[in-house]
Design goal:
alpha+beta; four-stranded mixed β-sheet; 3 helices
């Protein structure tokens, strides 16, 4: 994985976050749960009105609980070093100490 090879901790994949005791459940693409950083891949299929709304609601639910959502797309994967550096900066800002 890009992050592990870049010297970052391995994120959890398809991690389920329960927003309250009763739900709802939110599944994130990648999760650095120790600092509540969630990485969400936004592919072309996210451009439908219905999916866009679902993604927006998921993002704001996570952020309302104190999380931070980093949205990435195919362009971000073209420069892996920059993506790792950007993610590292966010992890540090959120409290991670390498």
């Amino acid at each position: 994985m890009i992050y592990h090879l870049g010297g970052l901790p391995e994120p959890r994949v398809n991690h389920v976050v329960v927003m309250t005791d009763a739900g709802p459940r939110v599944r994130t693409d990648l999760c650095f749960d120790f600092v509540r950083l969630y990485v969400e891949y936004q592919g072309d299929y996210h451009r439908t009105r219905e999916q866009w709304r679902k993604d927006m609601t998921r993002r704001t639910r996570l952020e309302a609980q104190g999380g931070y959502v980093l949205e990435i797309n195919a362009d971000d994967l073209r420069n892996e070093a920059e993506l790792v550096a950007r993610t590292r900066a966010l992890l540090v800002r959120l409290g991670w100490r390498p």
